C-alpha cells in the first residue's frame, strides 16, 4: 500500500495589494518589482484572516476535494513561521475547529520548505501504518512579521494558506523525499527578536544559493524517483521569485511542454503556503490535471529544502 495526495485546498485573503500601494515606503517602482521578482500583486490578510482561520478554510476545501470527513483525519501537520505563539501549536486549534476526532497535531518549522517537509512526513506516516489520513497545511501571515519599509523583503512576502490530504493509495503517488539543510547559512533569512519577530533577508546570497543549488536537488529528486524531466507534466517550485524559477528550469533542462507554476505573480511569496497555493491555481486553470506528475521543490530559511515528485489527485 502506498501514499498519495487525495485532495488540495487553498485560501487566499480577500485584500489584493498591487505594487503601487507599497512602492512609496521602499522607494521602489512597479516596474522594478515586476522585473526583479515577477510579482504584480499579493494578498494581505485582514484582522479576521488569521493563521488558524485561513488554515481551516484551506483544510475544509482539501478534505471536501478528497472526499474525506474531518473525523477520518489521524494527524494534522501545520508548516508555518508566522503563528506567533511559542505554544501550543496552531495545529491543535485548527484540528479542533475542523471537527476532527482528537488527532495527533503539531507544527513544523522549515520556513518556505515547510509544506514539502510536511508531505514527506505524511507520506511516511501513511506508508508506515501510523496514520490513515494526514492533513498537511502550509500557512503564513508574513505581513505581520515583515517591515513595510525594508526594501529587501516588503515587496516579496505575503499571506495565504494551502492544504493537502495525504492518504492510502494502491499505487504510490509520492516519491521519496530529497531534503536537507545548510546551517552554515543560517543567518541569510531569519527573524530578529523573540517576541515580535521581523523577517530579514540577504536577498542576493539567497538568490545565488537557490538558483545554483536547487536545480541539482530537483534532478536528484527525479533520479531517486526513477524519473527524468521528460516524465514530468508540471514543475511547482516554491514561489520565491520568478527569476529563480527560470534559472532552475534552465539548469534542469526542463522541456517547454512542462507546465511551470507562476502563482507568485498575483500571490507574492507566501513561504510555507506557496506550493499548495500554486498547485491549487494550476488545477483550477487547467494547467494541471488529475494523474499528472508534478515535481515539488521548496527552499528557504535554514537554509532548508525538500523536494518530491507527486501524482496529482
Ligand atoms: C530581493 C532581490 C529581488 C533584490 O535584488 P538584487 O538584485 O539582489 O538587489 P541588490 O540588493 O543587490 O540591489 C541592487 C540594486 O537594486 C536596488 N534595490 C534594492 N531593493 C530595491 C527595491 N525594493 N526597489 C528598488 N530598488 C531596489 C539597490 O539599491 C541596488 O541599486 P544600485 O545597483 O544602484 O546600488 C533579490 O536579491 C532576490 O530576489 N533574492 C531572492 C529573494 C528570495 O527569493 N527570497 C525568498 C527565498 S525563500
UniProtKB/TrEMBL annotation:
Pfam families assigned to the protein according to its UniProt record, in alphabetical order: ACP_syn_III, ACP_syn_III_C
Swiss-Prot/TrEMBL catalytic activity: malonyl-[ACP] + acetyl-CoA + H(+) = 3-oxobutanoyl-[ACP] + CO2 + CoA
Region (ACP-binding): 239-243
Keyword Transferase attributed: yes
Comment, domains: The last Arg residue of the ACP-binding site is essential for the weak association between ACP/AcpP and FabH.
NCBIfam families on file: fabH, PRK09352.1
Protein name according to UniProt: Beta-ketoacyl-[acyl-carrier-protein] synthase III
Amino acid at each position: 500500500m502506498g501514499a498519495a495526495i487525495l485532495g488540495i485546498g487553498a485560501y487566499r485573503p480577500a485584500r489584493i495589494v498591487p505594487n503601487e500601494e507599497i512602492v512609496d515606503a521602499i522607494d521602489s517602482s512597479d516596474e522594478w518589482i515586476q522585473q526583479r521578482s515577477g510579482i504584480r500583486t499579493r494578498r494581505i490578510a485582514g484582522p479576521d484572516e488569521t493563521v488558524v482561520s485561513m488554515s481551516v478554510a484551506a483544510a475544509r476545501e482539501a478534505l471536501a476535494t478528497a472526499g474525506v470527513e474531518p473525523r477520518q483525519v489521524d494527524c494534522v501537520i501545520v508548516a508555518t513561521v508566522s503563528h506567533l505563539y511559542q505554544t501550543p501549536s496552531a495545529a491543535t486549534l485548527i484540528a479542533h475547529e475542523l471537527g476532527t476526532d482528537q488527532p495527533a497535531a503539531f507544527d513544523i518549522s522549515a520556513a518556505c520548505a515547510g509544506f514539502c517537509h510536511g508531505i514527506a512526513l505524511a507520506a511516511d506516516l501513511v506508508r508506515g501504518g501510523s496514520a490513515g489520513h494526514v492533513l498537511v497545511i502550509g500557512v503564513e501571515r508574513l505581513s505581520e512579521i515583515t517591515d513595510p519599509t525594508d526594501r529587501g523583503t516588503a515587496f516579496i512576502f505575503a499571506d495565504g494558506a494551502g492544504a493537502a490530504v495525504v492518504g492510502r493509495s494502491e499505487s504510490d503517488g509520492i516519491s521519496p523525499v530529497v531534503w536537507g539543510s545548510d546551517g552554515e547559512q543560517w543567518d541569510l533569512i531569519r527573524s530578529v527578536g523573540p517576541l515580535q519577530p521581523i523577517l530579514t533577508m540577504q536577498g542576493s546570497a539567497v538568490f545565488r544559493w537557490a538558483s545554483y543549488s536547487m536545480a541539482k536537488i530537483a534532478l536528484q529528486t527525479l533520479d531517486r524517483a526513477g524519473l527524468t524531466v521528460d516524465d514530468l507534466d508540471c514543475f511547482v517550485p516554491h514561489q520565491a521569485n520568478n527569476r529563480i524559477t527560470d534559472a532552475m528550469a534552465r539548469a534542469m533542462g526542463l522541456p517547454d511542454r512542462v507546465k511551470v507554476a507562476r502563482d507568485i505573480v498575483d500571490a507574492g511569496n507566501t513561504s510555507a503556503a506557496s506550493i499548495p497555493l500554486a498547485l491549487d491555481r494550476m488545477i483550477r486553470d487547467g494547467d494541471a490535471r488529475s494523474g499528472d506528475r508534478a515535481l515539488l521543490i521548496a527552499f528557504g530559511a535554514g537554509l532548508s529544502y525538500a523536494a518530491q515528485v507527486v501524482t496529482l489527485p
